[in-house]
Amino acid sequence: MKKIVCMLLLAQSSFMMAQTETFITTNGKKVEINPNSLNTADNGLSASNGKVQLGGTLNKPTQIVTTSSNTLTIQGLQTGAGTDNVLVADANGVLKWVTRSSFLGDNLGNHTAAQNLNMSNKNITNISNAYIKNEAQILDRTPENTNYFSLYKSNGIFGIYSSNKGGNPLEIDEATGKNTVSSLRITKGTDNIAPVAGAIATSADNNGNVKWVAPSEVTPVGTAFFKYTLQSDASFAGNNGKVKFDNKIVDKSNLKASIVDNSGTYSIFVVPKTGFYSITAAVYQFFASTGTISTPVTMRGSVYINNETTGTKIGTVDLYALSVSPYYWTPGLLTSIEKLNAGDKISVSFSNNFASQSGINAGTNIAGDGGHPSVTYFSGYFISE
Q1: How much is the CA Rg of the chain, to the nearest whole Å?
Q2: What is the mean pLDDT, run by run of 10 residues, along the chain of 385 residues?
Q3: Nearest to 285 by CA among 357, 228, 346, 347
Q4: Which end of the chain is more exposed for a tag (fewer CB within 10 A), N or C?
Q5: Neighbour-count burial for 29-46, b at 16+ CB within 10 Å, e otherwise
Q6: Secondary structure (3-state) at 26
Q7: What local confidence, expressed as pLDDT, does residue 216 receive?
Q8: How are beta strands 167-173 and 200-203 bridged, if at all?
């Protein structure tokens, strides 16, 4: 029996010795442990086959303390993306995940600059308002050109300053609202037409849009857009008709091909711009008979100024004469002030009752005598818009 017990104790001792490992501590002491007896671990560690491994659930607040010499490094991490979460630490050093979208930007209002801010050619975007205390300088895109323009406001004057000229090409007075421009170039008007040498900038409408007009097309107040002085018969033969001035012109003041049209059987004057016009015709009636008329007769001749565009007469003068002599003439003056539109067509017409009177030459007309024209002067003057 004693032999059996001894053999069992020896076998158990041998088994335990086979499972035991000897470790030497940093103090030189020998410690014998059985690795197979390690089967549990916690607080972020795990046990597997007698081995302790990283990985597990923390079961208490845990702190890893580093120093400037004993630092913590993790190598071999994968490259992340700009949308990945960010690892941050709170005031107590507790690590937390923060989503990238939750970063709304730095509260720059808490900062006071101690030096110039160099954006290194980066943009500043999404600004609500920019308040400039002194001036904003705008440099040239070409680095070799060191001149600049600047925006500033001083003593109520907003200015655009040119370092090249050493002055302000443009100023705006906040009190009067007036703009001062040292030099100006308008390459095209509101009608998209470029100017020619000597052209005049005029208002194209009531909104102040500007267009360039050649001097010959400008109609200042008091300008005659046609003026005829006649020296021979204006072809008033017959009882009625319209007048063609044609080559009976002595004075063509301000007369252009675009204003007078003599291509038809009578003259048409085209109004150059909308406005009020004073139109005048100096006329007289002259007739001749075959002899002395025994019974006095009333000789009537009329001259009309017509707006052919609207189909209306804008002026009429009637000439009457009670004649008992073979030759007689009656002067008259017709003046009409009328609002005309650009493009309106103006003509002159006449009528008389000579043919119905007995004792009058069949060929007698309102001018009766080639040396005495019935219309001696005809003009149209621009008065106002």
Answers
A1: 55
A2: 44 47 71 66 81 85 89 88 86 86 70 83 88 92 94 95 94 94 90 86 86 70 64 55 64 56 82 85 66 59 88 84 60 85 88 61 46 63 78
A3: 357
A4: N
A5: eeeeeeeeeeeebeeeee
A6: coil
A7: 58
A8: unpaired
What pLDDT sits at residue 363? 46
Coil, strand or helix: which one is 321? strand
What's the rounded Cα separation, in Å, for the pair 160 and 158?
Answer: 7
Q: Which residues of 134-168 are buried (b: 16+ CB within 10 A; e: fewer)?
A: eeeeeeeeeeeeeeebbebeeeeeebebbeeeeeb
3-state SS assignment for residue 294: coil
- Return all residues near 368 (Cβ < 8 A) that are at least 6 apart: 285, 286, 287, 288, 329
Under DSSP, the state recorded for 289 is: B
* 301 Cβ neighbours under 8 A, 6+ residues apart: 285, 318, 319, 330, 350, 351, 352, 353, 354, 366, 374
**What pLDDT score was predicted for residue 45?**
84
Beta strands in 267-360 (DSSP E): 268-270, 275-288, 297-307, 312-323, 327-340, 345-352
Tell me how far apart the alpha carbons of residues 300 and 330 are, in angstroms, rounded to a whole number: 10
**pLDDT computed for residue 366 by the predictor:** 47
> What is the C-alpha separation between 168 and 180, in angstroms, rounded?
9
Query: Residue 333 is which amino acid?
Result: L
